User: What shape does this take?
Amino acid sequence: MPYRITDECISCGACEAECPVEAITQGDDIYVIDPELCISCGACADVCPVDAPVEE
Assistant: This one.
C-alpha cells in the first residue's frame, strides 16, 4: 500500500530527498506523496523526524 503524509508534516524536506522514485513533492502546506508512483519502500518514514508518512 502506498504511503501518505499526514498533517503532522513540518515541511522539512527530508522525505523528498530520500524517495527513490521521486514520488514526494512540496504541496501547498505540507509535502505530498503521489500514490501512483509510491513503491511503499518506507524510506520517507525512516527519515521523518515527526513520523508524518504513514502507510495507507
